Each structure stands twice: as structure tokens, then as C-alpha cells.
Fold this protein.
Amino acid sequence: MAGVILYRHLTKEAKYQSMLMIHRLQNLPLKGRLIEKITDVTVNPQWGVWSLSNTELLKDQKFHDTINTYASTLGVSASALSSKDFAVTLWKTRKVSKGGWVSLVIWGSVYFNASELSKANKELSNRSRLLDSAHY
């Protein structure tokens, strides 16, 4: 398990040894899941927030927090206006206007960013809890 969790941060030789241990497993479903976890985070580390180093995780949190701050500052009043227009247009025409699609994309982006920030915050919280409990 440690080889899977740390895989992105291992040397080439250590990666080889980790993969060798996984391939020796008799439990095929477990072997498949472990290889899947390794390949997922190798392709895109964001698919496994647990695989990020503390530095990477803090950078990720700061990035999403900055976007969240700007979106909150700029978006509250604009969002209230566009949601009213969106609802009125949808009710009257039963169609989504170009502006409505833009609003949906913006709302989706803000929601996605908030979700990513929440994941980063939860992972940081989990790590601090583990560190605190390790001292006892």
C-alpha cells in the first residue's frame, strides 16, 4: 500500500520494486485496483488528492481558494441577476438562451472549483488529524 500511496514520489527503481510487489499478489481484484490507483495518479495527480505531497496540496488549496475568493467577490450580484433572467427566459420560451448557457457554464465552474477546494481542505484536515493522533 505504501508503494501505491507514494508511487508518484518514488525513484525509478523504487517504482519498479513497488510494481513488482503488486504483480506478485495472488488476489487479482486487489492487484487490478492497486494498478488502477497508480495509473490514475500518474496520468493526473488530481484524480487522487491523497497522492499529492503536502507542498502540492497546499498549492492546490491556495489556487482554488484564490479562484473562490474572486468568484465570490464578482459573482454574487451578477449571479443573482443572471439567475433571474435565466429563470424568466426558460419559463417563457422553454429554451435556454446563449446568455443562459454562459450562466450555466459559469455556475458549473464555480461549483467545480468549490468542490476541488473542499477536497483539498478535507485532505489537509485528514492529514493534520493523523499527525495529531500520531503524537499520542
Observations:
- The first helix runs from residue 2 to 6.
